[in-house]
Specification:
five-stranded mixed beta sheet, 201 residues, alpha/beta, globular, 8 helices, two-stranded parallel ribbon
Length: 201
């Protein structure tokens, strides 16, 4: 029996008040994104993250987990599904396919170039601090410099949540080609997801 033919299970929404907006976010990371997005949980917003497990972090694996979740649970028309992945080392051909699939299935794509840590660094840094091309190791170093206690598996998300407006502003200015499928240079489309969340809070 295929996933699409199975009876879908009700999604437990008991932790949220009635009519709270649900965001289902599948992530490339195992812990970092889950820690960050959990801080947005409120009476108006419910966040369900689907992190990577056992190292299966390739974009197609992340995308498949999101589809499996959608096929297993009864979701409302107002529920939002998002894919949060990195540009990093993944082949362009693979990313193009994922971007096309997200568009056809009405799934939001929030890709960071080179990695999610660049989005976190935007909470603290100014526009001029970001070169056009940045490696993942440099993004980590930048984040460590501005947030000394940062540990990708164990950090306080409050270090970032009250600074999202700065991150959004920097990300928008870096996004020179907003109609492209993802930032070709240093940047992050996570701002689009966070803007949506902030508009409800």
């Amino acid at each position: 029996m295929s996933l699409t033919s199975r009876k879908k299970r009700p999604l437990d929404r008991s932790v949220a008040v009635r009519d709270a907006q649900l965001f289902v976010i599948a992530t490339e990371g195992e812990k970092t994104e889950d820690i960050y997005f959990s801080a947005f949980q409120s009476t108006k917003i419910r966040i369900k993250t689907i992190p990577t497990v056992n190292g299966a972090s390739a974009p197609d694996h992340v995308f498949r987990r999101l589809l499996e979740f959608r096929n297993q649970y009864q979701l409302d028309d107002t529920d939002e599904l998002w894919l949060v992945i990195d540009r990093d080392k993944w082949p362009v051909k693979s990313l193009r396919q994922i971007a096309s699939d997200c568009q056809s299935k009405k799934i939001g794509l929030a890709l960071s170039n080179p990695c999610f840590e660049i989005w976190l660094a935007m909470h603290y840094e100014k526009l001029e601090d970001f070169p056009e091309k940045l490696k993942s190791c440099e993004a980590f170093r930048m984040l460590k410099n501005c947030c000394k206690s940062y540990n990708k598996s164990n950090f306080d998300p409050k270090l970032f949540i009250d600074k999202t407006e700065n991150a959004i502003s920097v990300a928008k200015k870096l996004d020179k080609s907003p109609r492209s499928r993802w930032p070709d240079k240093t940047g992050s489309r996570v701002y689009r997801l966070v803007e949506k969340i902030n508009s409800i809070l």
